[in-house]
Amino acid sequence: MNFHIITIFPEMFDSYLKESIIGRAIKDKKISIKFYNPRDFIKAPKNNYKPVDDRPYGGGPGMVMRAEPILSAVEAVFKKLKAKKLVKLKAILFSPSGKKFDTAYAKKSTQKYTDIILISGRYEGIDARVQKILRAEEISIGDYVLTGGELPAMILIDSISRQISGVLGKYESLEEERVSSSEVYTRPEILKYKSKNYKVPKVLLSGNHKKIEEWKQK
Ligand code: SAH
């Protein structure tokens, strides 16, 4: 899976994508991540600085991200993909009022696409014509408003990547492929905390796999 991220803050991704499972997935070439900064696509004569944002029509506080630099950045993705065969491309635009992202969506994405463009907004959002022109799907990661689409992009990358076979250490680690539990324990068997003993549930020490599975189901 190839992720193409449109963002004016690519550095925000650095530490997250470098570490742990996602870092390894990139090294192992299970996924690839490329950045396209709309600032690099601003067409303006030299010394005639044009910002990436502008005031909203109809008034109101905050600024709106201009359409042209984002569309040019997306065109750079198209150009790059043109030479490749068998590209199944999806464009996603982040918005708090979009369709809610979930595991089913992540799973479906790994089956349907080879390349995903993730457009991260900032400020008051992106000029609505970008969505109309690209017919991008508007996706929300939850019912709250963030300051930008960079965290949502990282969340999608993380959640979609762990659905790709070979990304997690063992395929069984995928939650849907086994009975999982949010209640998990590790050593010590008896945890002493402020003169009280906290024990691991007996069933987990029993070695009886059937009973353990039943306990997890509950
Ligand atoms: N005024 C806008 C909010 C803009 S928030 C509105 O009411 O829709 C700025 C940017 O952060 C958005 O363009 C989007 O890319 C991102 N964002 C904020 N909250 C988000 C959420 N819950 N899910 C996905 N993206 C979000």
Description:
The protein is an alpha/beta fold and 218 residues long. It has 2 domains: 2-171, SPOUT methyltransferase, trefoil knot domain (Alpha/beta knot, 3-Layer(aba) Sandwich); 179-217. It is built from 7 helices and 9 strands. It has helices at residues 14-18, 20-27, 67-82, 103-112, 129-134, 150-161, 209-217, and strands at 2-6, 32-36, 53-54, 64-65, 89-100, 115-119, 137-140, 190-193, 196-199. A 5-stranded parallel β-sheet has the order 2-1-6-5-7. The chain has a two-stranded antiparallel sheet with strand order 3-4. A hairpin with a 2-residue loop joins strand 8 (190-193) and strand 9. Helix 4 crosses helix 6. The longest helix has 16 residues, at 67-82. The protein is elongated, with a radius of gyration of 22 Å. 22% of the residues are buried. The model has no long low-confidence stretch (mean pLDDT 94). This is tRNA (guanine-N(1)-)-methyltransferase. It is found in: Cytoplasm. Belongs to the RNA methyltransferase TrmD family. Specifically methylates guanosine-37 in various tRNAs. Its main location: cytoplasm.
